[in-house]
Write a structure and sequence with these properties.
The longest helix has 14 residues. 26% of the residues are buried. The strands form three sheets. Strands 2-4-3 form a three-stranded antiparallel beta sheet. Strands 1-7 form a two-stranded antiparallel sheet. Helix 2 crosses helix 3. With 134 residues, the protein is α+β, with helices and mostly antiparallel strands. Helices cover 40% and strands 15% of the residues. The protein binds iron/sulfur cluster (2 copies). One iron/sulfur cluster binds next to helix 1. The site of one iron/sulfur cluster has 11 residues, from helix 1.
Length: 134
């Protein structure tokens, strides 16, 4: 399928979609360092750990603690799933899911054509990062 994508400045639509933000151990360390905290401090404050997964705790009033006004406040250290979006395996491998995401992501369908190999390479980052989900 033809894939075009260009993230739109000032957009945070994907951060507002209901769902959890999962982290790898490396994501946790990067975000903690960016926030000026130790990994333990960051985890205590912002992370919920299950047996197989880490995810950001959700504040009551929004989907993600780090969602500011039109910006991710930890952008340079955001978790893998945020960085790789919209090249998630379930979307790259299924035209219908890609189109569905295009309903809320204004960057889908914009910009230059993305080589399918590039898209698959990005999506494989998700599989490596969250093996229990794929
Ligand atoms: S919804 Fe799409 S265009 Fe908007 S920030 Fe997310 S990836 Fe970028
Ligand atoms: S960590 Fe940043 S990019 Fe990811 S959902 Fe939260 S605000 Fe959005």
């Amino acid at each position: 399928m033809d894939i075009r994508f260009q993230c739109q400045p000032g957009c945070t639509a994907c951060c507002e979609v209901k769902g959890y933000v999962y982290l790898t151990e490396q994501d946790l360390e990067r975000a903690a360092a960016f926030a000026g905290l130790t990994a333990q401090e960051f985890e205590r404050k912002y992370v919920y750990r299950t047996r197989h997964l880490l995810r950001l705790r959700k504040p009551r009033d929004r989907n993600c603690e780090f969602l500011g006004a039109g910006v991710c406040t930890i952008h340079p250290a955001k978790p893998t799933q945020c960085r790789v979006f919209p090249f998630w395996p379930e979307m790259v491998e299924d035209r219908r899911e890609w189109k569905r995401a295009g309903k809320f992501c204004p960057g889908i369908g914009q910009g230059p054509l993305v080589q399918i190999g590039t898209a698959l390479e990005k999506s494989s980052e998700m599989k490596k990062a969250y093996p229990s989900m794929y």
